[in-house]
Design a protein that fits this description.
There is one protein chain. This protein has 140 residues and is α+β, with helices and mostly antiparallel strands. The protein has a single domain, classed as 2-Layer Sandwich (Beta-Lactamase), CATH 3.30.450. Strands 2-1-4-3 form a four-stranded antiparallel β-sheet. A hairpin with a 2-residue loop joins strand 3 and strand 4. The longest helix is centred in the C-terminal third of the chain and has 21 residues. The protein is globular. The N and C termini lie far apart (31 Å).
Length: 140
């Protein structure tokens, strides 16, 4: 996968803030990481009482999604179907759901990883944060 363009750090921060605020509104504790298209972290945030383990997991989810070009939930399904272990290729990969690819004009520009909830809730929150940011950007 080639990395042609990447999300800007200021936008990564906005997306992370949206995710944190969504979690806080529901009384949830999470960590969130937003990475560029190569999987390098641009922004990390955590709520005050999030479990310490959620920090590394959120980072790995964003990294994995950016590097593979797929949401981590899709990676987990492929791994089960094909019997592959993602860690064989890169020890920072994770198959835990909650990493979501960020796209602009059909190009991968980064990824967001959320950890602290049930895996499907992590992914839903990550997707919602990105969609809300896109909506705000269009509204200008």
């Amino acid at each position: 996968m080639q990395c042609r363009m990447s999300i800007e750090a200021k936008n990564a921060t906005k997306i992370a803030e949206i995710a944190i605020n969504l979690a806080k509104k529901e009384g949830k504790e999470i960590s969130v990481s937003v990475a560029d298209c190569a999987g390098e972290e641009l922004c990390f945030m955590t709520t005050d009482s999030a479990d310490i383990q959620t920090r590394a997991i959120a980072k790995r989810k964003a990294y994995t999604s950016a590097r593979t070009g797929r949401n981590t939930g899709e990676n987990a399904k492929l791994r089960e179907k094909k019997g592959q272990q993602l860690a064989w290729f890169d020890p920072n990969y994770t198959g835990l759901q909650g990493g979501v690819v960020l796209k602009s004009r059909h190009e991968i520009v980064g990824a967001i990883g959320v950890s602290g909830l049930q895996p499907e809730e992590d992914e839903a929150l990550a997707q919602k944060a990105f969609k809300l940011w896109q909506k705000q950007e269009k509204a200008g």
